[in-house]
Task: inverse folding
């Protein structure tokens, strides 16, 4: 059988593939892959809420993991410290989220984490009318909408805040008088951790 240009290309391609395979094997032995660093981009999508730090900040851990990390909830700004309705906002978040398994989703229009190291995530709730904790909190007046036009839930968050403001719920009762108690949430059944 004569050696044609097509056979020559095939032989060269086969030799290149074998050489590349050998190079990959040599590199893998010479420089083993290090364990992936713990970065926000590698965080799995589900977590267990251990503690509510304030109305828009959580301490969470993934199932079976030891490492804890802080999540800043995307889409809301809750009152803090001595601000009117800060304690009620934190209590609403604690009643709704503590001990619950949640979903965590990044917001593509925001950085992955704050300079403090807290990851920025949407907090997704199963068996919840809104599906996103930020919408629930804004609708109940437990937090203000904190959004940008490019954010996926931006319009819904603004509408939820407006609904709470018009209904004088939560922090929208802060007019110098004594703030009202936080609304009780119904988080549904909570499985054992």
Result:
């Amino acid at each position: 059988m004569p050696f044609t240009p097509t056979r020559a290309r095939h032989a060269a391609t086969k030799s290149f593939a074998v050489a590349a395979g050998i190079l990959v094997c040599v590199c893998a032995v010479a420089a083993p892959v290090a364990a992936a660093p713990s970065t926000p981009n590698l965080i799995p999508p589900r977590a267990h809420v251990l503690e509510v730090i304030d109305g828009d900040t959580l301490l969470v851990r993934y199932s079976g993991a030891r490492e804890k990390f802080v999540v800043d909830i995307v889409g809301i700004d809750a009152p803090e410290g001595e601000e009117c309705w800060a304690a009620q906002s934190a209590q609403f978040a604690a009643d709704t989220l503590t001990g619950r398994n949640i979903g965590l989703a990044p917001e593509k229009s925001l950085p992955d984490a704050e300079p403090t190291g807290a990851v920025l995530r949407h907090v997704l709730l199963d068996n919840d009318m809104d599906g996103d904790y930020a919408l629930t909190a804004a609708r109940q007046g437990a937090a203000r909408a904190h959004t940008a036009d490019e954010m996926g839930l931006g319009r819904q968050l603004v509408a939820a805040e407006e609904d709470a403001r018009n209904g004088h719920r939560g922090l929208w009762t802060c007019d110098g008088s004594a703030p009202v108690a936080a609304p009780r949430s119904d988080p549904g059944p909570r499985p054992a951790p």
